Amino acid sequence: MTDIQIAKDLLSIGAVFFRPDEPFVWASGIKSPVYCDNRLTLSAPAVRNDVEEGLAELVKTYYPEAEILMGTSTAGIAHAAIVGHMLSLPMGYVRSGAKDHGRKNQIEGRAEPGQKAVVVEDLISTGGSVIEVVNVLREVGVEVLGVVSIFTYGMQKGLDRLRKAKVVNHSLCSFDVIARVAAEQGYIRPEDVQRLLAFRDDPADESWIGGQT
Prior knowledge:
alpha/beta, 22% strand, 213 residues, single chain, six-stranded mixed β-sheet
């Protein structure tokens, strides 16, 4: 499955929204010209098939020794379950925090010390949430081989964080490809591509807003 096909898939179902003139505000406070809602892939069977086949291929190619898939909560759970079924691998997921009742689990599913795991995430931006999942697994002795994800923004902050945490990510599609395909297919103006890439390079520099770049 090519990154261009995944980009076309995501654009075709409206999973990627572009507002370079009226940016979205993420929970972190970052202003972004793009918002990616990969949960919509679950409601589009044809696109879902492309995504899951692509993720399965990433696991087989880069992590052939994987023994379990662990989804991120909540967006990665369904993808980990589907790909786990396709590859006949067990799966589980990591909560954002431990439950305050029952067994007070943070890891759901059986994850054993020494077990080789691949984390399944929907998208990577600054890398913080997926690294937290990796750290939770490492704390209980799970060997995290790496991460597979649908989409990555390719932000330098995220790349630096992943490198520092010794986490390798492989994504089906990148921000650069999405921007190029969106321009080619008329979702955005060709001149907006450089504005999008300026955001990718330095989200703190908001000069791209309103066509100032």
